[in-house]
Specification:
Helices cover about 35% and strands about 25% of the residues. The chain is built from twelve helices and 14 strands.
């Protein structure tokens, strides 16, 4: 894979054991359950050698330019957070003191909007609203002492702050992404059963497909899976066309965002996409898929067909079918969905050189398919516990 000069420079610094330019931060790239290892591997490929998976994401060390690169390049992560403080907190007083010790004046603008979100799991401090309130009060108190100001207008750029408590361990983080990283910008309508872009990218990575091989989604819906595969094959950074919250942070003002984006633009090679295609029986879904393909800049590189699954026939001797078929969550839909799973098996039998991969929350998928999967992985599609099944 051709690397950008930015990535090569970052790798070179680390290979020589040199300190990264400017201040370094402890960071967390958050991720859906089951995809933490994929995110850690992505970070290592980007040159963050200390990256390691943990529950809910992957931690790593980076300077401001490295965080910018992570936001632009990560395909499977949900957000990139700067971890500002971490400590056991069993009382609100302890939480207040922890937040007040953080040098907020280094990270926040005086007119910034300090938006505090929170979550609490298995902790003595179980009131999310109270934890958010305490965090905001401690933050403002620190800013008053550091700046001498008595009030803060909060009319400027947003500074998303997260207070998270898990088993009484409090983490205070600054969200550098802002809008979640799955918001690539190409999808303007979700359709009936949306698949988050970051999960779609994870399924592409977990599948046996690699750029250059034929890939077909026989239940493509609005096209998210095949678009994510094409973006990967063409070396298109998923965040190249969007803005991140940290672009307004004081500690990121020296980052040359324009130069980084221009280099990432030069890395794009649409000719690498190859035979990536999709089909569906629903004309409305296909119309949305065509719109999304165009908005992703991939028009002419992904083929879409209105074809019933039962009639689908590919000419290539080998390839990968990758799909997110309906799950049949409603009782009335279950029988028709399981008939579709049987049709997926027939599709694979018509293509003996092809592998088939599907994600489903239906525990009866394999029985309906008529065969056990060669490999499986537990994942979550939103709140739904699913299995990603690979049939050799």
């Amino acid at each position: 894979m051709k690397e950008s000069l930015v990535i090569m420079r970052l790798n070179l610094h680390k290979q020589r054991g040199e300190r990264m330019s400017g201040e370094t931060f402890r960071c967390i790239a958050t991720a859906a359950f089951g995809t933490e290892g994929l995110v850690a591997a992505e970070l290592k490929r980007l040159g963050f050698r200390d990256a390691r998976a943990e529950s809910g994401g992957a931690c790593f060390t980076a300077d401001a330019a490295g965080i910018a690169l992570a936001n632009l390049r990560l395909r499977c992560a949900d957000r990139v957070l700067i971890l500002l403080a971490e400590e056991k907190c069993e009382t609100f007083d302890a939480l207040f003191r922890l937040v007040e010790r953080i040098p907020w004046e280094k990270h926040l603008a005086m007119d910034g909007r300090y938006n505090v979100s929170g979550k609490c799991v298995r902790s003595k401090l179980m009131s999310v609203r109270d934890c958010q309130s305490i965090t905001k009060k401690a933050l403002i108190e620190r800013m008053r002492k550091a700046t001498g100001l008595s009030t803060f207008p909060e009319t400027g750029a947003a500074f998303p702050i997260e207070v998270s408590l898990h088993s009484d361990i409090a983490r205070i983080s600054l969200d550098t992404s802002g809008t979640a990283l799955n918001r690539r910008g190409y999808r303007t309508w979700n359709g009936e059963a949306p698949l988050r872009e970051t999960l779609a990218a994870a399924l592409v990575e977990l599948s046996p497909w690699r750029p250059g091989m034929p890939l077909h989604d026989p239940c493509c819906g609005t096209g998210t899976l095949i678009i994510e595969a094409a973006l990967r094959a063409a070396h298109i950074a998923p965040g190249i066309h969007r803005i991140f919250a940290c672009e307004s942070f004081p500690s990121f003002q020296k980052v040359d965002w324009k130069a980084i984006r221009e280099q990432l633009q030069e890395d794009i090679d649409l000719t690498r996409i190859g035979a990536v295609s999709g089909s569906d029986i629903d004309p409305e879904s296909l119309e949305l898929a065509r719109r999304h393909v165009k908005q992703a800049g991939l028009e002419g590189y992904i083929s879409l067909l209105q074809t019933p699954l039962q009639e689908l026939q590919r000419e290539e001797p080998e390839g990968v079918f990758l799909c997110n078929p309906p799950y049949g969550e409603r009782l009335g839909d279950r029988d028709s969905c399981r008939a579709l799973y049987a049709d997926l098996h027939k599709l694979q039998r018509r293509h003996p050189g092809w592998k088939l991969c599907a994600i489903s929350s239906d525990p009866g998928f394999e029985r309906a398919y008529g065969r056990h999967a060669a490999r499986r992985r537990r994942l979550y599609n939103g709140r739904l516990e699913c299995e990603f099944l690979i049939f050799e």
